[in-house]
Amino acid sequence: MYGNDFAPPEDGPGGGLLGEVEAAEAALREAAARARRGGPAPDEDFAAYFADVIDADQKIEPRDWMPEAYRKTLIRQIAQHAHSEIIGMQPEGNWISRAPSLKRKAILLAKVQDEAGHGLYLYAAAETLGVSRDELVELLIEGRQKYSSIFNYPTLTWADVGAIGWLVDGAAIVNQVPLCRCSYGPYARAMIRVCKEESFHQRQGYEILHTLAHGTPEQKAMAQDAVDRWWYPSLAMFGPPDGDSTHSAQSMAWKIKRFSNDELRQRFVDMCVQQAEILGLTIPDPDLRWNEQRQSYDYTQPDYDELMRVIKGDGPCNRQRMEHRRRAHAEGAWVREAAAAYAAKRNSKEKVAA
Amino acid sequence: MSTDHSPLWEVFVRARRGLSHTHVGSLHAPDAELALRNARDLYTRRQEGVSIWVVPASAITASSPDEKDAFFDPAADKVYRHPTFYEVPDGVAHL
After folding, report:
1. Residues of A in Cβ contact (< 8 Å) with B41
2. Taking phi first (over 0 means left), then psi (-120 to 50 degrees means alpha), and beta for anything else, what does residue B55 get?
3. Which of A180, A191, A283, A353 has its CA 20 to 30 A from that of A85?
4. A288-303 core/surface letters (b: 16 or more CB in 10 A; e: else)
5. For B9-31, what is each residue's pLDDT tens digit?
6. Do A121 and B45 touch (CB under 8 A)?
7. Rounded to the nearest 10 degrees, how much is the dihedral formed by the CA atoms of A159, A165, A170, A171?
8. What count of CB pairs under 8 Å joins A to B?
């Protein structure tokens, strides 16, 4: 398939996933420098021009003509992604006041601040498609748009903060690195930024687990318990199996999506096995084993019925997450109003002075 | 609060001395001062810049890609603006 999409990790400039992000960024610059020769002109046949740009692996930009369904798909996907970043602050925010040291607390604060930043980059990318951020925030608050189901699970111990960094952020990166090559320019550029910052998140989570796993037997047990609880929900983050995925084929054709859910899930499992060994922790899957023929690990699928239940609102924390978001939005209203009133007052004074 | 009270700003960051300001993204803010502060928190958390410009998005006039060909036509047939257009006789130095 897209043979050039992934440099082997050892060939990537930075190695590993970060190297792939850098490669995607380089490809973006290359594609921009490569002039499109011949082909339909932008003002003759809109649809043909759009298809030609996608074919040539170039980026569609905000003011280009695009099929309505392409625009809608992107708005839905980018908004859901932005909402996930915003709601995703909650499970980790839960531990800011109880982080075990000042250093861990400062790091966690920086991480949660990054999640807010990622949400804002993504809302800005969605806005280039002609929807306003206020509309999207409303859709989230009214429950008419979704966020990633993973954030409906609780963070019961400090080790969960580690497991989120390693597994949840790890799965997010595997999902998101190919999005750095998405055909829509603003989304691709936002994802490059997000992925570079996410790699710090994944490493800080891994470090937390590594410290716990090499601490007292109780600390190691706490780390193992967190991995036991987060493993399958993390696998479910890649979405339903390919056969049941409703949006995949069209998104692949438009080069919004580059790999199928199952391919990405497999890539994630293959990465995690060796990382778990170094942690000295066990992946909670008795059927996990190397398959010589496929050159990949066989593994147990997550419970997709549970995934569907959580998506539909029946996860452990759905109501809590939404209530918290609504309350935070309502309680921040006076700040937004005060800032707007101050700006209006200054504007009118300037007009009088002028 | 609607977006009218918190308009969109485009953000430009100078990464280092000697480089020009480059567009990095956009954000909402009620006024220029808050736009600058938000831009600092949003786009320079890792020392990505030494200087920031914020511009109200509504103040930008853009040429649309739809008009691409016609708009940039005047430049297309003036190849003599590039040094490669000229033939240099053999043996000429410093030209």
Report:
1. 113, 117
2. beta
3. A283
4. beeeeeeeebebeebe
5. 999 999 999 999 999 999 999 99
6. no
7. 80
8. 68
Closest residue of B to A196, CA-based?
B46
Using CB atoms, pick whichever of B1, B45, B62 lies closest to residue A336: B1
Ramachandran category for residue A204: left, alpha or beta (phi over 0 → left; psi -120 to 50 → alpha): alpha
List, for residues A184-237, the tens digit of each pLDDT value. Answer: 999 999 999 999 888 888 899 999 999 999 999 999 999 999 999 999 999 999
Residue of B nearest to A334 (CA): B1
User: How is residue A21 written in tokens?
Assistant: 């992000």
Collect all residues with Cβ–Cβ distance below 8 Å to B67 and sequence separation of at least 6.
A43
CB contact under 8 Å between B31 and A41, yes or no, is: no
Domains (range + CATH), chain B: 6-62 (3.10.20.520)
Mean pLDDT of chain A, nearest integer: 90
| pLDDT at A11 > cutoff 50 | no
d(CA A120, CA A133): 9
The answer to whether the complex's ipTM is over 0.85 is no
Helices (H), A142-184: 158-163, 169-176
A99: left (phi over 0), alpha (psi -120 to 50) or beta: beta
Q: Which residues does A91 contact at the CB level (< 8 Å), separation at least 6?
A: A151, A153, A154, A155, A160, A164, A317
Of all residues in chain A, the one with the smallest CA distance to B8 is A124
**How much is the pTM?**
0.88
Residue A250 has pLDDT above 50, yes or no: yes
Closest Cβ opposite residue A121 in set B25, B62, B67: B25
